[in-house]
Amino acid sequence: MKTDEFNIVLSGVGGQGTLLVAEVLGTAAIKEGLNVRVSEIHGMAQRGGAVVSTVRIGEKVQAPTVLEGQADVLVGFEPIETVRSLRFASEKTAVLMSDERIFPSELAAKKMTYPDMKDIVEKIHRFTGKIIIVETEKLAREAGSTLTQNIVLLGALAATEKVPIKNESLIEAIQELVPAKHVGMNVKAFKLGYEYVKKMKVQA
Amino acid sequence: MPNLRVLLEDKPEKRVLLLGNEAIARGALEAGIGVVTTYPGTPASEIADSISEIAADAGLYMEYSINEIVAVEVAAGAASCGVRALTAMKHVGLNVASDMLMTLAYAGVRGGYVIVTADDPECYSSQNEQDNRFYALLSNLPCLEPSNPQEAKDMTITAIEISEKLELPVLLRTTTRVSHTRGPVTYGRLATPNLKGKFVKDVKRLVMVPANSRPKHEVLLRAMERAKEISETSPHNKVVRTSKSKELGIVSSSSAYNYAVEAADLLGLDASILKLGMTHPLPEKMIGEYLKKHQKVIIVEELEPYLEMQIKAIAKDKAPDVDIYGKMSKRYFPKEGELSTRVVAKGLADITGKGLPIDFSEIKEKYDEVSKNLPARPPILCAGCPHRASFYDMRKVVGEKTIFATDIGCYALGIAPPLNVGDIMICMGASIGTAQGISRVTDENTIAIIGDSTFFHAGIPGLINAVYNNHKVVVAVLDNLTTAMTGHQPHPGTGVTGMQSASEKVLIEKIADGCGVKYVRVVDPFKVSETETALKEALQNQGPSVLVFRAPCALVAVREKRSKGIRIEAYKITDKCTNCMACIRLLGCPALTVEEGKVNIDEALCTACGLCISVCPFKAIGGST
Ligand SMILES: Cc1ncc(C[n+]2csc(CCOP(=O)(O)OP(=O)(O)O)c2C)c(N)n1
Ligand code: SF4
Ligand code: SF4
User: Fold this and answer.
1) What is the number of other CB atoms lying within 10 angstroms of the CB of residue A180?
2) Which residues of B touch A40 (CB under 8 A)?
3) pTM of this prediction?
């Protein structure tokens, strides 16, 4: 379709740090002189509910939200939430998904089990073949805290080489937006996410 | 998260990524506003919250007022002394402030005064999706509608200028997608805020007794004639794109404008576009000329056909032959919910007969299939939330019986299973009043559930009513020592002000006492048996009683502990667990999960509140060592 816009959909659970990733992407885009719109949902939706943030980069971009089927990258912070945002995906979409499961409370209440990972991947495959699963928890632990899983995913996103923003700008934005004492850990998380995907690509 | 000091940089032409609401805050600083007041509410909160962070350094005065009408009163008082002022609120806040608004329009202001109303199409975090542009019509006040963060900043300044020119308050109306969109903003010069006012006595102008109001109504109408002239030449009302064929025109404003532009491009329409930024009063001449130049004009707007109604009236006089499409005679666009590029493209396609280049129905079909049995994930009370404990205590005492008139705040999430607390909820403060009507005409026990911030905002008159008219209700004030739902703002009970300085704490139990309530108790909801006793006593009471359930919001408490480096030792399920599922069945704590048929505590989420310990019949939950 149009090439003068680049659309990122970030889908996760309130509290997972999707907003920070969106803000880092937006800030880095500004550093490179690009036009950008970031949409966020605050308030009610944040209390452990499903949240979607979008980042759109490009000269002609005006609306903050992404059109169905038009995501260039869908970053799923959680498997169920990745599926919930598949309406933004099509064959052109690259899906990056964390394997970190967060159990919706409905499961326990209704005696249901978490959907099988195989089913989840199959569902994604109905929209696109381009899918990378990232072991965010393991990598975030290595970086120093499981709270950095969001930045692991950002590193992974940067490694897909699809995003029209340089790594340096993203790292600079992380340094500006994360509290000083956590910068080191987050930059490490970024690099671990980045290398994880790079290595995977070499194998593929 | 964001470092708000960036708002204080005096670097004209600097390009910064700002949230729409932060951009309004920056606009306030560039406009030299001296007084900012608010009552929090999504999607407006960050306007005043970001000012609160920097107010002392910026040299302006900021306050969290008790509710929206008081916020307008305080700001209007300052503006009547010539100080520039801004009040921010969510759309329904303007209902609360409307009594002031309607007559302030007559009295007017001296210092520029802008009232920001942030509307919430799609009810992302609101009880309704009213279209507040009608308040502009109703009150006869000018209204500006930005479509992105840059305009949000610029129009804040324009609003102040217009306000001072006309000596009228001006409405700045955003929507969730303007307030909560980040985008590039280019700075202008910072101004030095003026906080020094002078009250000039002028009874005819400021005392709205009938003899003064009558002539002031006339003055208001004349000022709005001048406002129309401003609107005719305003740079915010302009044709942003012309067409080759001159057949088709699109008129739009606010967030809808963004979708309209992208949808027109998606369809490859040859259409001119008139963007309206000042939407009250409308530039009638300009719109008349525009209509005359086209055969078909499509009006793209969110929620009510506010523009369409007025534009059709203009067309009747100035361009009777033009065909106007929107949502009135035929609904090409919905009146409910938010718009999107897809929804607008569909409407434009239907009107023009152009085909959509994307097969949305195919995407929808495929999506409906993959998402059919997907577990829902609605917002829920956090792990460790004191409201969960309060509701558990109440259910323990009353079982399935009792009618719960609830209110607006995090505790509204108590309606979810397994707690199911909340049988009626309308607007802020209504819990206490509706409970009284229900109690009067039924034999049921009625408990009003109200948060601390909501109690201060609108609960007190209802409570006095209960005392005066002797209604048998239990008022449960869930005091988590913050305004949690809207972003943890302080309130009179917290002893912290918007300037981030200390103040006298106003105690809810003292207020109840002062209102004449005979039975008033303060309980800790995590102390289950004590709370049970108090609640039973309260229910025995023949008149109104007040129970203050006091325990801090878990999110705030955890954040504080983390910042102090205190580790939270999550509880663990020991081998005494029989998998009876009592904790799961009774609490709905997100930290309690069932994995492969076994109960488990998610250590990342557990705040060690200990409620589940009180619940477990086998004492199978313990602290880790
Ligand atoms: C008139 C009006 N103003 C503002 C709001 C936004 N709002 C929703 S809940 C709430 C207050 C929540 O605080 P509190 O009552 O203390 O409950 P908590 O969320 O802390 O549990 C506010 C301000 C609203 N819904 N209506
Ligand atoms: S933010 Fe605080 S009050 Fe709201 S649900 Fe979470 S713990 Fe409860
Ligand atoms: S698991 Fe138990 S102790 Fe931990 S937060 Fe939930 S109810 Fe409280």
Assistant:
1) 7
2) 19, 180-182
3) 0.97
